[in-house]
Design goal:
Number of strands: 0
Shape: elongated
Helix content: over 70%
Radius of gyration: 18 Å
DNA-binding region: 32-51
Pfam family, one: TetR_N
CATH class: Mainly Alpha
Oligomer: single chain
Low-confidence stretches: none
Distance between the termini: 63 Å
CATH architecture: Orthogonal Bundle
InterPro entries: Homeodomain-like_sf (IPR009057), HTH_TetR (IPR001647), Tet_transcr_reg_TetR-rel_C_sf (IPR036271)
Number of domains: 1
Protein name: TetR/AcrR family transcriptional regulator
GO molecular function, one term: DNA binding
Order of helices and strands: HHHHHHHHHH
CATH topology: Tetracycline Repressor, domain 2
Mean pLDDT: 91
CATH superfamily: Tetracycline Repressor, domain 2
C-alpha cells in the first residue's frame, strides 16, 4: 500500500520524535531499528524509505531532543520571567527532572554516547549546547562577554553533572544532595 507524501512526512516526524525519547531512555545502541519502528507504530521496512541509516536518525533525533529541551527551558522562563535562571534551576535540578529519562535533558541522558557518535550527532548536540549557553549567558548578564560565557559554561557543567550524578546513584538522599549542592553553587556563581 502506497503512502501519501503527507503521510510519509508525518511518519518521519513520528519516528524522529519516538527515537528522540527512546534514545534518551535506552541510549543509541540500547534499541534496535525493529523496536524503534514498532514504538512509532511502523514496520522496519518503512525505516529505509525515511532515513539513510540509523546514524542519520540518531542525528535528527538528537537535534529534536535538544530542541525539546530548549523549549522546556523557555517554558520554565515564561512561567517566571522576572527570574528566568531560577526558573530553569528549579525545574532542571529537581528530582522530577532526574526521573524523566525519556523527556529529560539529552546531554545528561546521551552525553557519553554522543561523544562516541559521528560528526552529525555531535553537531546536533553542539548546536543545542550553544543554545543553552546563549540563554544562560543572557541571564548571568555580565558586562564582560568572556566572563558571562565562562560563567554560563560553569553553570551548565555543574547542572548537567549534578543531574547525571543524581541518576547514577540508588540512594535518593544522595541524589537530592547532588541536586541541592549544584543549586547552591549555581546561585552562588551568579551572584559572585
Amino acid at each position: 500500500m502506497r503512502v501519501s507524501r503527507i503521510q510519509a512526512a508525518e511518519n518521519r516526524e513520528t519516528v524522529i520524535n519516538v527515537a528522540s525519547r527512546l534514545f534518551r531512555e535506552r541510549g543509541f545502541d540500547g534499541i534496535g531499528l525493529k523496536d524503534l519502528m514498532k514504538g512509532a507504530g511502523l514496520t522496519q521496512g518503512a525505516f529505509y524509505k525515511q532515513f539513510e541509516s540509523k546514524d542519520d536518525l540518531a542525528a535528527q533525533a538528537s537535534r529534536r531532543a535538544m530542541e525539546s529541551a530548549t523549549h522546556r527551558w523557555s517554558a520554565a522562563t515564561a512561567a517566571n520571567p522576572e527570574n528566568p535562571l531560577d526558573a530553569v534551576i528549579s525545574f532542571y535540578l529537581s528530582m522530577d527532572h532526574r526521573e524523566e529519562k525519556m523527556d529529560g535533558c539529552p546531554v545528561v541522558a546521551l552525553g557519553s554516547d554522543a561523544a562516541r557518535q559521528g560528526a552529525d550527532v555531535k553537531a546536533s548536540f553542539e548546536a543545542g549546547i550553544k543554545e543553552y549557553l546563549e540563554m544562560l549567558g543572557r541571564w548571568v548578564g555580565e558586562a564582560d562577554g568572556d566572563e558571562a560565557g565562562g560563567k554560563a559554561m560553569a553553570i551548565l557543567s555543574t547542572m548537567v553533572g549534578a543531574v547525571l550524578l543524581s541518576r547514577v546513584v540508588n540512594d535518593l538522599g544522595l541524589a537530592q544532595a547532588f541536586l541541592d549542592a549544584a543549586t547552591d553553587q549555581v546561585r552562588e556563581a551568579v551572584t559572585a
